[in-house]
């Protein structure tokens, strides 16, 4: 397939070679299917071979070529093997998506230190290792798109998620630095994605030492919405993209008033914990993968009968717009009288 370079935007994803880490569940699994539906060829990475094989098979069932490469993103040699395996299978790499991530929720001192270290290794170093494998290849071929899934935690710090916030702040700075390094290479793009709360198995796969159940609240986005953002970025690259208005609000609030934003966030999470039901400590999948069935959604919206946050937001805007029109009509009628 011929490639155009320079400021080209890849509108047709047919035969684009896409590497996705953290592809066995959640957003990564949804992204694999989204790119498969567009005819991309995929190299899918995660720690669990069986879960990877199932998503690779699902992509092939949709007519896409896919290879599964068991990879621990905290091992730079394993990440380099992933890149070589993608090249062996498909000849090149056009898109690399750093999607693997985890977190520890609860008082910082209550979690074993190795969980915090693993969180930073997976989130920050895993993204750095991915970029280290992808960028030399992009530079040699003159084109490529590096997409890193960061989260709103890269804009506003979250109490009781100190290591997670540290890794995400670092990841945002890292990708911003890379963007400036490659600015003289118009065919290479470094994109950062900042989703709001997403209904994935990630809450179960992360550690929870708070002693309380995590309540995401009603504004929870579907993993497919983040996956579609990845697709749009390959077609129309942008530097930083929020998924969901809470992520945009966090960005603006912390930029304009960091102190008050920290205090309000802290008060809200303390209140949530005070009202939450008790829960046992769990270390999730940080040390080793879980044996749960691979899936896209975490099930929170299904259990509570809540539509995606996008649907709720659009419904709210429609109601607000309707109320505004009614109010304007009433005011016009009174003026006419």
TrEMBL record:
GO molecular function annotations of the record: oxidoreductase activity
UniProt entry keywords in alphabetical sequence: Membrane, Oxidoreductase, Transmembrane, Transmembrane helix
GO CC, one annotated term: membrane
SUPFAM superfamilies per record: NAD(P)-binding Rossmann-fold domains
One Pfam family matching this protein: adh_short
PANTHER family attached to this UniProt entry: DEHYDROGENASE/REDUCTASE SDR FAMILY MEMBER 7B, DEHYDROGENASE_REDUCTASE SDR FAMILY MEMBER 7B
Protein name according to UniProt: Short-chain dehydrogenase
Phylogenetic lineage: Bacteria, Pseudomonadati, Pseudomonadota, Alphaproteobacteria, Hyphomicrobiales
